Structure of Tripartite tricarboxylate transporter permease:
Amino acid sequence: MDTLALLADGFGIALTWQNLALALIGCFLGSVMGALPGLGPANGVAILIPLAFSLGLDPVAAMILLTSVYYGAMYGGRISSILLNIPGDEPALMTTLDGYPMAVQGRAGEALAISGVASFVGAFLATWGLVFLAPLLVKVALLFGPAEYFALFALAFATLGGIAAQNQAKSAFAAALGLGIAMVGVDGQTGVPRLTFGEVHLYDGIDFLVAIVGLFALSEVFIFLEHRGEGSGKGKAAEVGIGRIVPPLALLKSCTPTMLRSSFLGFVAGVLPGAGASLGSFISYSIEKRLVDRDGRFGNGDPRGVAAPEAGNNAAAGGALVPMLALGVPGSGTTAVLLAMLLALNITPGPLLFQNNPDVVWGLIAALFIGNFMLLAMNIPMVGLFVRVLLVPPRILMPVVAMVSFVGIYGISGSTFDLLVMIVFGVLGWLLRKLNVPLVPVILGVLLGNLMEANLRRALTISDGDWSALLASPLSIGLWLIAVVGFVLPVFLAPLLRRRMAMRKDEEGSIVD
């Protein structure tokens, strides 16, 4: 009952005109960014971080804006999947299998509406899961000492590549690169400058907001410049028919069991470190196909094939917030960016967040509920508008992204040096993407590097330099074991998983190509 009382307090915080307006703006912008192929939720949140600072928002309002963008982008990712057969981000890949065939059959509006309802169900149930599971996880996390926290950070690095990671060596390299960047600046304990190369501007270290905006937003602009705007979906979007945008009640009824099962699977995948929304959507689709597809309709435009991955990946998005808020360890790439925002606001996520900043936590959770209803109300009648968004040429969009990045970062720091650093990170991000090195472990290294170092030093100081203290408790041993398994398992499972996803895409997609 305490939890429900705290949630009621959260609604009291979230239900102000300012917060409602921010949630509405965030949902709209997130849906637009999610709809644009290539941007995705992590980029969408990163681009808007400078805006949140420029507006001078308090922590609750800023987090409401950015998490609304996150949920909105997860909703929006399905639009390009259904209309263009191009997933807005990786988790939306499975939606193309039945979404695009429905669009070709002139039922795009129905597919978009079903996916909107499934996204709502998945995110709504996952937010309830967050309400009840996060406080339980906090009680466990309060048992953590420095050694356990160090093991937990190692676990986060080991598993963030995800179970579908293409190359664990590249993930490890990216994490090491991020840790190296976090070491730049004057060492707080000894006062010795590290990796500053005599440049006084680097004595305070590198601001992770500058790194995030450079790596995600500016690198996207560089990719656009490299390809000169190729890949616009204008031609394909014109091929499909929208049809009716309100699905019949019988169709919703037939999809309801699918949505409920997929929401549960997606939430579990989101909470588990390293699993993420991609696995949530794949498992939801695969299991649903085995359970209900007795006449081979999946892959030919079955609405249940749209509902399953959408409910799964949106539930995973809510699940990924559980470890971020309760343990301070992000469960996905986008939650890593949200974690950066919390740290920039001088709020430390983790078990004490629920005690020290209950207004932020419960206001945020209440805003997620409100945002869900807004997204449902917004997405169905505004399907036509989002279709038009897909026709915006990148040559207009990308200069806007660049402008927001530069103005936003200069507005926060007022330093031209930071702008130069941001450009360097933009080039670095472009280079890493060319080499297929994941960007999220770099960001995680920049974010958590100093905390990880501080906990390591603390543990060694308490144990008088005895390294075995890192493995002294059953909890830390368990965390290290999970970290090792989480790092090694994708080496064997990822090729199998990707092959099965590609086979299913080829087999079922070929029917409509």
Q: What stands out?
A: The first strand starts at residue 185 and ends at 186. DSSP finds 21 helices and two strands in the chain. Residues 231-238, 509-513 have pLDDT under 50 and may be disordered.
